[in-house]
Amino acid sequence: MSDFKNFSRMFRLDGKVALVTGSSRGLGLHAATAFLLAGAKTVIISARKAEGEQGINQAVDRLNKLPGITGKAIGIAANVADTEDIERLVKEIQKHEEKLDILVANAGATWGGPFDPTPDWSSKKVLDLNVRGVFNLARLFAPMLEKAGTRTDPSRIIIVSSTAGVTVPHVGDHGTIMYSVSKAAAHHLTRQLAIELGPRNITSNTVGPGFFPSKLANGLIEILGGEQELKDANPRKRLGEPEDIAGVMVFLCSPAGNYINGEDIHVDGGMRFAAGRQTKL
Ligand SMILES: NC(=O)c1ccc[n+]([C@@H]2O[C@H](COP(=O)([O-])OP(=O)(O)OC[C@H]3O[C@@H](n4cnc5c(N)ncnc54)[C@H](OP(=O)(O)O)[C@@H]3O)[C@@H](O)[C@H]2O)c1
């Protein structure tokens, strides 16, 4: 028989403090929900907008009504493409918490259009948020993460990338070249952070989703022929669902993911290996 330490807590996050950027909706909200259900003490919901149907406040209200949770969600607005705003976010969080166990750099931007002309602002927008912003989040939150991590229970950085970071998914009229490039950079940033921050008891990994219906993805899903067509093309015959993000996030951030560092985990039903069928643009 093997002697496992605390197997019953293997997929739990009891007592943990997590920040999820871009968590007012979409994949970030799935991750935040899962963290609270897995026992997290505090989950910080962040995005640019506080008010309105898709703002932070409605997400925080709904999260705090989740049955059976012992922790709480709190909301702090910030633009994580802006370095000064990230510095402010660190200070705001320090008013509530001394340490941070989990940083999910999820907020991302995309732009699609023909190769020529590509407006320069679109590349800047995508790279500022998806690459420079993610690097600055890791850099500026590293001291708080280091305070939380130990050799036996490191703190965690999860960068939400995309299968677009390892494929060439869309060219032509609806090309997403710089998005794809930004996500490839995110994968390599993870590897760099894994080596840089591993000795400081912080692990870094990437989650690369395939298509999940969301505000960001829905336009492209329609351009590609709609949900049914993408489901039919996928080896698992479906698109991503909230539980798929919940599972991978809890796995990577719980004791089960303790020794995983510098990895990319794609959550796409295997679709990226059949990418040629998706390239109809
Ligand atoms: N959905 C998919 O199929 C899919 C596939 C592959 C990868 N991804 C990746 O998954 C991540 C989340 O995408 P999603 O589909 O969940 O998108 P979404 O539903 O559009 O949500 C994006 C979230 O990010 C926030 N946000 C946007 N820009 C921000 C900024 N500058 N600073 C702070 N927050 C910002 C948004 O709120 P505000 O607008 O209020 O700021 C919102 O909370 C992205 O990195 C995306 O590239 C998604």
From TrEMBL:
PROSITE patterns the UniProt entry points to: ADH_SHORT (PS00061)
Pfam family, one: adh_short_C2
Keywords: Coiled coil, NADP, Oxidoreductase
PANTHER family in alphabetical order: 7-ALPHA-HYDROXYSTEROID DEHYDROGENASE (PTHR43618), NAD(P)-BINDING PROTEIN (PTHR43618:SF3)
InterPro entries with a match to the protein in the record: NAD(P)-bd_dom_sf, Sc_DH/Rdtase_CS, SDR_fam, Sec_Metab_Biosynth_SDR
Species per Swiss-Prot/TrEMBL record: Mytilinidion resinicola
GO molecular function terms noted in the UniProt entry: oxidoreductase activity
UniProt protein name: NAD(P)-binding protein
The family this protein is said to belong to: Belongs to the short-chain dehydrogenases/reductases (SDR) family.
